[in-house]
Design goal:
InterPro entries: C-N_Hydrolase (IPR003010), C-N_Hydrolase_sf (IPR036526), Nitrilase (IPR023919), Nitrilase/CN_hydratase_CS (IPR000132), Nitrilases_CHs (IPR044149). The protein is about 30% helix and about 20% strand. By secondary structure, it is of the alpha/beta class. It is globular, with a radius of gyration of 21 Å.
Length: about 325
């Protein structure tokens, strides 16, 4: 039974709603801050860079063109200067970093989760498999290739974003790969108090069911930022509360009190021996499973929009004039 201890940090801060550069400065500052407190795992909220598309929740489609185009302009490509900067910061801190970004891939945006190992290696780039409700106007869909648990300096880490946690088969795909630490990311400052309550229930249930630690980060908006998204005070109610930055043990308990408002970095020491203690009682993908009755079919192959029936040959320029 492992006696390892991992110090985890879940970051709840506000992005810069005007620029990628501004939010990146906040990311790098938070990595340094958490590392100075001994963090070995640092988790940021959903699509934190440049920011979660809060506008899509409160504005009608006809008014989303300008902010949506701005999101395209400020989105992150992978690889890029931004991903290299995070990789360098992770390596300098000696910490695993999980960052949510709006990823731009040519003409499409995706909700992406990036896992950097403690040496700066980008171990995983995954895309949210199904954007939720208003998000479908903003992001494309991911595929099964991202439902993957990776070996990191702190153990086996899996990740899902927001309401992907309401898809039991997506969670089970990670559970079958024996994740030890599950990383979750939500936007925060959204929907209202009920959202934070729902997040807490979901995070505690996944920890219990999978027998792993859950480190969840939600974002935060200041009153001024909320007003900048919409001046309508009625709609502004949909951009308040809904925060539940938390760290949950395999026993379904909060390792430390959650952070539900304001900015801060939640820190907790994860006693990895609790994983075996929980799974001794109930291993849902091992001795408690009944694969002859119930099993999961998971297609891990990337989806592509173009396939070729034969190897392509290099293009040879055609002369504009016939040779003499």
């Amino acid at each position: 039974m492992s006696s390892r201890t991992v110090r985890a940090a879940a970051v709840q801060i506000a992005p810069d709603l005007t620029s990628r550069a501004g939010t990146m400065a906040r990311v790098l500052g938070a990595i340094a801050d958490a590392a100075s407190q001994g963090a070995e795992l640092i988790v940021f909220p959903e699509t934190f860079v440049p920011f979660y598309p809060y506008f899509s929740f409160v504005l009608p489609p006809i008014k989303q063109g300008k902010p949506h185009l701005h999101l395209y302009e400020e989105a992150v490509t992978v690889p890029s200067d931004e991903t290299r900067a995070v990789a360098e910061a992770a390596a300098q801190a000696g910490a695993v970093v999980v960052l949510g970004v709006n990823e731009r891939d040519h003409g499409s945006l995706y909700n992406a989760q990036l896992i950097f190992d403690a040496d700066g290696t980008l171990l995983l780039k995954r895309r949210k498999i199904t954007p939720t409700y208003h998000e479908r106007m903003i992001w494309g869909q991911g595929d099964g290739s991202g439902l993957k648990v990776v070996e990191t300096a702190v153990g086996r880490v899996g990740a899902l974003a927001c309401w992907e946690h309401y898809n039991p088969l997506a969670r089970y795909a990670l559970m079958t790969q024996h994740e030890e630490i599950h990383v979750a990311q939500f936007p925060g400052s959204l929907v209202g108090p009920i959202f934070g309550e729902q997040i807490e229930v979901t995070m505690r249930h996944h920890a219990l069911e999978s027998g792993c630690f859950v480190v969840n980060a939600t974002g935060w908006l200041t009153p001024e930022q909320i007003a900048s998204v919409t001046p309508d005070e009625g709609l502004q109610k949909g951009l308040r509360d809904g925060c539940m930055t938390c760290i949950i043990t395999p026993e379904g308990r909060h390792a430390v009190p959650p952070l539900t408002e304001g900015e801060g970095i939640l820190m907790a020491d994860l006693d990895m021996s609790l994983i075996t203690k929980r799974k001794r009682m109930m291993d849902s993908v091992g001795h408690y499973a009944r694969p002859e009755l119930l099993s999961l079919l998971h297609d891990p192959s990337p989806t592509v929009t173009r396939r070729t029936s034969a190897p392509e040959t290099p293009f040879t320029p055609i002369p504009l004039e016939a040779e003499a």
